[in-house]
Amino acid sequence: MNVKPIRMRIVLVVITGLLLQHLVNPTSRVVAQSDENVDHVTTLEWSPDNAQIAVGTWGGPIYIWDVASGHSFHTLLGHIDGVFSLAWSPDGKRLASGGLDKAIRIWDTFTGKLLNTLTGHIDVVSGLFWAQDNSKIISTSIEDNYNFRIWDVNTGQMLDTRRRGSAGLLILSPDKTKLAIDYVGSIQIIDLSTFDPITILQQPEGFTNGNDVTAVAWSPDNSHIATGSRNGKVHVWDTSANKIVATLRANEEQKVDTEASAVSAISFNADGSKLMSISANGVLRTWDVQTNQILGTTQGQGPILIATAAWSSYRGRLAIGGKIDHTAKSAADTLPTNVIQVISPFPSTGELRGIVKRCGTSETQSKLIAQLASNNLQKFVDEVKTSTKEKIPPACAADLIAMASALQAK
User: Fold this and answer.
1) pLDDT tens digits for 236-278?
2) Side-chain-facing half-sphere of 148: CA atoms under 13 Å
3) Could you report the per-residue pLDDT of 320-332, keeping only the tens digit for each?
4) Torsions phi, psi for 391 (to 5 deg)
5) Contact criterion met (CB below 8 Å) for 184 and 147
6) d(CA 284, CA 266)
7) Which fold has domain 4-346?
8) Delimiting residues of CATH 2.130.10.10 domain(s) in the chain
9) SS3 content of the chain, % helix, strand, coil (to 5)
């Protein structure tokens, strides 16, 4: 059994990170925090309505955490080892989980009941994705070069396997038509309707052992893919031209292939104008995609060792899971050992405007954009709060309120 690559990827993030310190600065605001102690956090996944977050842990328990209350209302017990992949069904009624025990478990998110266990992988389950009709799951593993296994969720039957090369990351494009997977150090783009390869984004010459891809993100318009690596570099690809258009260093250290240099998470912001990266040393950097310049670097306040991070669907809130460093001389002793926070980092009126255009009705867009133009953030928040779900989906409204509140706090 070959678990070293997956364990290495997780160890880079969970064990060796330096102080994350809440990711709070004058343009970022903590909007929710768990007041309960959980096991070491390994992965986070937002529910489709952004009201809950599924929390995977190193020991195996999975927590369903309510964002509004800061409490977990389900603890899912079944995995006997670390959980590294989580996926909500598109309707939010079920959750798929996988990890070191090689099994995929399907849970009822309302009752917390285990519905089915899918077995067949012979190595770590490193990625999960639901078909849009809620009937099938695609899973990835690094075993014997199998990228995909396709399962019938209701019967537990394995329908197909596709050999595509080793894969540990599985990222769905924003338009839900393609998958990006890491492919022996490069990135392969797959047509989701056929599971056939469309193209391979080849890493630069010399990008071999020690420079593994550790994070992948799509731009909101599907035109670019960003990859983070273990040597601290971030590459931005033009997917239509199949070439690298920018190379960024996410860590100032000149050492290559060190744990502190690794890029543990990466994401474009709501309008695709910024790229955010988190290094294993707990530093969040924001880049201007057009100029490739760093716009901001933050570690904020408070002694948290980052474990993982996940963006809400409209990219207005960032969920982080981490461990309190109780050796630091601060208020750490009053906090749980392991925490989950939801923050709104680096918001801007431009991003607010972009999200409004994506989710608001025409009439609502006009009102909210006018309030942003007059810099009336309080009226903006009030309007969002009083809008019906037909005018603004609740998941979008929550992101808009969090971002606007963070801007007010500047």
Assistant:
1) 989 888 888 888 875 554 444 455 667 877 888 877 888 888 7
2) 26
3) 876 655 555 444 4
4) -85, -40
5) no
6) 9
7) Methylamine Dehydrogenase; Chain H (2.130.10)
8) 4-346
9) 15, 40, 40
